[in-house]
Write a structure and sequence with these properties.
single chain; about 45 residues; membrane; transmembrane; transmembrane helix; 1 helix; mainly alpha
């Protein structure tokens, strides 16, 4: 019973980590874009 649980838990942890990295990267990219847009708009005035 313990043997299948370990790989499953490891797999779930790996999926969570991959999803978190994707979310973190997406959020970082969104923040960069917002900052750049804000700076460009500020420069126009």
């Amino acid at each position: 019973m313990d043997m299948p649980a370990c790989p499953l838990g490891s797999l779930l942890a790996g999926i969570k980590l991959a999803v978190w990295r994707k979310v973190h990267t997406a959020l970082g990219a969104a923040v960069c874009v917002l900052v750049v847009v804000h700076v460009v708009q500020a420069a126009d005035f």
